[in-house]
Amino acid sequence: MTRRSTRQAPLPIENDKNRPPSTSHHTPAGSHRAAHNNNQLQDTINSCNAIESTRASKRSKQNAPARAHIQNEQDAIASNNSDSDEVKELKAQLNRAEAGRHAAEHKLSALAGPNRAANPEDETVQKPKKMSTITVSSICQEMDLSGKENDDEWQTVRNCIHDCMSAGHIEWDLRWSEQSATKLSKIFDAIEFSKPCLRQFCNHWATEHLAKEAFHAYKSYITCKTNVKSYC
């Protein structure tokens, strides 16, 4: 009688390659938690970005005046550099004009002032206490220019007075009392330099009187010339 073997056949060994993958970590609950965590992370990143954007906007507003000031300075520097030739030319013209003015004033002072200081004895006729008694004829007589034989010389004096007032840029539209004292003094010096016979009167009093009379006569002439009714 044949004996039966009681040994069981070995179980087949499963190949790992054929084993289906485990899906324990892909359960619905795990997927939900992962998505929730990702959303929280994204929200945190968005919040940080928003805060940083707000801070950057505030910094930009705070620095805007400084940037504008710097830009203005840069524009000014660029403008000055571009206009440097024109500015130099204008400054040169201004310097030449100032030099010409100083030269003219120096020449006028040299012509009038030093001559008066060098000849103080010329001022011998004092100013009268009552100028209301002084006339053009009395001044003309004091200068020894009265009489018809001296009419031509007297006319040159009158012309000189008018020319000096015009050259001295007297304001014809203003009153005599409104004229510049400094300007009038220079005019008187110029008149007496051209006509030394007027230097005998102290402190320009006769020159001033004649200039004032010539001023009013010219104003009256202009008024009559522009007003036709004044001829009637």
Question: Layout of SSEs?
Answer:
Elements: H1 28-82, H2 84-118, H3 136-142, H4 151-167, H5 181-194, H6 205-226
Helix pairs in contact: 2-5, 4-5, 4-6
Can you walk through the features of this model?
It is rod-shaped, with a radius of gyration of 54 Å. With 232 residues, the chain is mainly alpha-helical. It is built from six helices and no strands. α2 packs across α5. The chain has helices at 28-82, 84-118, 136-142, 151-167, 181-194, 205-226. The termini are far apart.
Uncertain regions spanning at least 5 consecutive residues: 112-118
Envelope shape: rod-shaped
SSE sequence, one letter per element = HHHHHH
Query: For the report, how would you describe the main beta sheet?
Result: none
Short description:
The chain has 232 residues and is mainly alpha-helical. It has 6 helices and no strands. The relative contact order is 0.07.
Which keywords apply here?
6 helices, 232 residues, rod-shaped, mainly alpha
